[in-house]
Amino acid sequence: MTVTQRPIIFVDADACPVKDEIVRVAERHGLVVTFVSNGGLRPSRDPMVRNVVVPKSADAADDWIAEHAEAGDIVVTQDIPLAARCVEKGVHVIGNTGRVHTPESIGMAVAMRDFKQHLRETGEDRGFNRAFSRADRSTFLQALDGFCRRATKPT
Question: Which Pfam family is one of this chain's hits (predicted)?
């Protein structure tokens, strides 16, 4: 992203529970949103909302986002490996629950993901995720709005 270019919000859209919220926040800040998915997205008439449909392979959406997001852009994803790839490029990364990933925190997030995967593979953990809550939605909105305000603030 060049200095005069506004950031783009890239969304790992498959199973993302905060799509409507992302569009509302982006609209308020005049930012383009790009939803990336394996399919099933409703087209939008809003010229600031773009849908990218990728092949149905396992990491196609992640690969597309990692390739196209640039330093200063914003990525919304729950996928820790994708978050790590984007943080490495200087992209602002936020999870659907408002968890912000930074260069300082991403290493622990990757380690915890790998540990939990090991527990699931050994049968020690059944892999149940807690339900998405109102508090998660509120935390997400605050974090995304903060990213957008900082990204669009005149320097």
Answer: DUF188
